[in-house]
Automatic annotation (TrEMBL):
It holds the Pfam family Ependymin. GO terms for cellular component: extracellular region; lysosome. The gene is MFAP4. GO terms for molecular function: calcium ion binding. Belongs to the ependymin family. InterPro entries: Ependymin. GO terms for biological process: cell-matrix adhesion. This is Uncharacterized protein.
């Protein structure tokens, strides 16, 4: 499956809204989900059928932060470093995930703003979460390609 979409992330309210369009074989799939971690509840909205399914979340909230066990790979300038104000100093962090997996996260040096999350596990393969260029200008932070939780139907 190949998919793209948007995600609104609310760290204080521990909420995530996912809207996704994907290609599965010769078909197209649409997904609109609301994850309420403080209530351990996931709602999946089907706009085609005008239905809403409620599921139980079994994972805890995933904070967008540098993990405590992360190791610094490098500090680099993204963009142009030749002219003042044209680049952003970033830190690239890496570490291990359960199940023989690994991750690489990129955050800005000033403000520790997340830019890119990449994960790999043998079971799920590669997943990349990339923030848009106008990240600091949006009230609802949006990005693409997130698969952070698992859930079971109530």
């Amino acid at each position: 499956m190949t998919a793209t979409g948007t995600i609104a992330y609310d760290a204080y309210g521990q909420r995530v809204r996912i809207r996704e369009i994907g290609l599965v074989g010769n078909g197209t799939s649409f997904m609109d989900g609301l994850l309420l971690f403080s209530q351990y509840t996931y709602y999946e909205i089907d706009w085609k059928r005008f239905t809403c399914s409620k599921w139980k979340l079994v994972d805890d909230f995933f904070p967008m932060e540098v993990p405590k066990d992360a190791k610094l790979t490098a500090q680099v300038v993204m963009g142009a470093s030749s002219f003042g104000g044209m680049g952003v100093l970033v830190n690239n962090w890496y570490g291990s995930l359960p199940g023989n997996g690994m991750y690489s996260y990129v955050f800005t040096e000033i403000g520790c703003i997340p830019l890119t999350f990449t994960t790999y596990t043998p079971a799920d393969g590669w997943a990349t979460l990339r923030f848009p260029r106008d990240y600091g200008l949006r009230r609802n932070w949006k990005f693409v390609g997130l698969d952070l939780v698992s859930f079971h139907q109530c």
